[in-house]
Amino acid sequence: MSWLQKLLPPKIQRTGPGMRKTVPEGLWTKCAACDAVLYSTDLEKNLNVCPKCGHHERLGARPRLDALLDADGRFEIGAEVLPVDTLKFKDSRRYTERLGEAQEQTAESDALVVMQGSIKALGVVCAAFEFDFMGGSMGSVVGERFVRGVRVAIEQKLPYVCVTASGGARMQEGLLSLVQMAKTTAALTDLAERRLPFISVLTDPTMGGVSASFAMIGDVVIAEPKALIGFAGPRVIEQTVRQKLPEGFQRAEFLLEKGAIDMIVDRRQLRDKLHGILSLLQGQSADNVA
Amino acid sequence: MKTTFLEFEQPIAELEQRIEELRYVADDSAVDISEEIQRLTKRSQTLTKDIYGKLTPWQVAQVARHAQRPYTLDYVQMLFTHFEELHGDRAFADDASIVGGLARFGNAPCVVIGHQKGRDTKEKILRNFGMPKPEGYRKALRLMKLAEKFSLPVFTFVDTPGAYPGIDAEERGQSEAIGRNLFEMARLRTPIIVSVIGEGGSGGALAIAVGDVVLMLQYATYSVISPEGCASILWRSADQAPEAADVLGITAGRLKTLGLIDKIVPEPLGGAHRDPQATAQALRKALAEALKQLQEKKPKELVEQRLERVMAYGKFKEAAER
Fold it and tell me: Does the complex come out with an ipTM higher than 0.90?
């Protein structure tokens, strides 16, 4: 088990480790929420949303970008930025080992993929977290790639969209990962100065250092249905306050009710929704954006 | 006040107790034992020097959390005059785990903000053990905006186990409150001087710690997660906290090497609580230097340099063009 799996309550752990990876072609999968037996390819075509009950299973960074961006004219940003083990961090295993394993499992070099592209012909820079890479944790590489994405957005006068799925800061980089919170959020002030929109899409889960930095500072903040979103993990809170957490606590619907987010959007409508919102926002500042 | 000794300081504690006993009998003793007292005092100092010369990160964490360690309001009293505490976030409540207000540093009017822990049980509860809720961060931001409006430098003092992990804190947007501070502090058009004086606990610390100069007391800690928290996740047991403290790199020396803090402010032998006045003196000197250096800069230049510095955070390698 990875460190993040240990940290997460059983409910939000990946159902059936590597459901999408280890299951041979053509096999049936069971929906984690309604137990409906589904044809794997159908589920994938449906962006990992259960066609029976609408449960949003996690979606990796690249399928996510595929689902949001137009097929043509995409360029990856910041792929040249790679992780190093500055602290020589070692618990039961070395950080370098964990990195190697995550890289092998996900075929990604770190937990954030950033691309310039377009949503229905509307230019955009879009970043997506890969949760399967060490729990989507934010270290130096995630921070730097995020910032490079912002720089491209500014150069090309494009809006910025970030889809989060992260347990928080990456412990294995110590304080270097904590200050990524300041770095990513400071980058957003550059976007704001130029009146370029930042839209934050929160998916399951968005916690800790990621939620307590740029993720909540979107001009518009969108969440996927039932996504777990918060600062402290439910288990930590339960241990601190020593009482049972209310039903639906820290879920997207709870946040909407408390006024923390703007809307909940079904994954299958997200591309349309983003296009609509970005058109409205950019229409307003048309003279600046040109 | 009688010094409380930590577990690893027990040899010093025993010596000090013997000195105390000798002093007691010295008063009505016919034999002159002042020489013996002097000898033992010297030995106690050497012993302290020895022990403090090779503190492990975990031991440093104990010193940083020492029950007698000076807190923000102690430094406010020792370093500032004319302190006018200001309360509340104007939206929900006044959070006593973050204090702030107007004051003078030397002759200069300024804004002071800091985490505040409590001394006795009653105050500890009032201060929520120095763990702020969203209203605390929002009060801090309100005061920073006030400072910006009237061109006053901001001094922040960091000393928290972390932001409060509670139901109400989540309901009122703990994440947003911290994120908003990071966003606003990045471009605040007035100097921000940060001093980590005790525990720099994760996001709850960072939310008032983005600045132009970051000072750190010699035995303070600053970390992405508490050693106990890290140990219980990675080792599945908080007992491994000393190991976690080692690998996390939480001490001032380590963080200076990593370029994440600017200056280490020396503490008296045995830690800040052994001589709060001396600690405050050392801190005053460092703060005055930092202020002098920053006051010469125009707001635009100040913000540019702050952004440049924050954007440079992180260690990674770059592959050749792909």
Answer: yes
